[in-house]
Amino acid sequence: MAHTPYPQTDRELMRLIERSPGHRAGYKQLIRELGLGGGRERRLLLEQLARITARGELVKVDSEQWSLPTATPEKTKRGGVEMPVEHRATRDRLLAGRLDLHRDGYGFVRPNGSLDRSDDLFIPPNELNGAMQGDEVLVDEAPPGRDGRRSGRIARVLKRRNPTVVGIFHYAKTHRGEALGRVLP
C-alpha cells in the first residue's frame, strides 16, 4: 500500500491500522506505509485520525499511537507491558451532568440529580474534548479504578454555559511541529 496517493478513505486507514502488529499503528509508521510527502498530506492524516477518534472508531493509545477500540489487552501488549485499552461508549455508561474545571486542567462532572460530591466523576485533562467550565456534558464512564473512584471522558457537550467566548486566538507550532492553539482573554 506504500506510495499510494493521499487522501485515503477512513475505512482504508482503519483497515491499515487493523493489519498492523497488535492492531495499533504510530504516526511515523502510517506516514511511511502511506508514502506521504510534505506537511499538507501529514496534516490531513492527523485531521483524519482525530476525526475517526472523535467518532469512537479509533482510540489514541498514547501521543502518537492509534488502536482499534475493540483490541483486547493481549493484542495491545508491547514489550511485556500491558497498554491501557479504552472502551467503546455504550448507553449503559453514559451520564449527563455539569462540568466543573480545576485550574490545573482536570475536571469533575456532577451527574444530574446528584446532591453529593461523592457521585462526581473525575475527568483527566486529555479527556475534556473541548468542554468548558459549567457546560452540560455527556460523560462516558470508565470502569471504577482500583481505589473505587469514578472517572470518565467527555463524549459530547450537550449545552454550552457560555456559547460565545471572547479572546485572542494565538496559533503556533510546538517543538514537535504539532499545531497549538490558545485563546487568551
Describe how the helices and strands are arranged:
Elements: H1 10-19, E1 24-26, H2 27-34, H3 39-54, E2 59-62, E3 65-67, E4 94-101, E5 107-111, E6 121-123, E7 136-141, E8 152-159, E9 168-173, E10 179-184
Antiparallel strand pairs: 1-3, 2-3, 4-5, 4-7, 5-6, 7-8, 9-10
Structure in a nutshell:
Helices cover 18% and strands 28% of the residues. It has three helices and ten strands; from the N terminus they run H-E-H-H-E-E-E-E-E-E-E-E-E.
User: How do the strands line up in the largest sheet?
Assistant: 6-5-4-7-8
Strand content: 25-35%
Low-confidence stretches: 71-90
Computed structural class: alpha+beta
Largest sheet: 5 strands, antiparallel
Number of strands: 10
Structure, explained:
The chain has 185 residues and is of the alpha+beta class. Helix content is 18%, strand content 28%. The chain contains three helices and ten strands; from the N terminus they run H-E-H-H-E-E-E-E-E-E-E-E-E. A five-stranded antiparallel sheet has the order 6-5-4-7-8, with no helix packed on it. A three-stranded antiparallel sheet has the order 1-3-2. Strands 9-10 form a two-stranded antiparallel ribbon. Strand 4 and strand 5 form a beta hairpin. About 11% of the residues have low confidence.
Keywords, separated by commas or semicolons:
3 helices; single chain; globular; alpha+beta; 3-stranded antiparallel β-sheet; 185 residues; 28% strand; 5-stranded antiparallel β-sheet
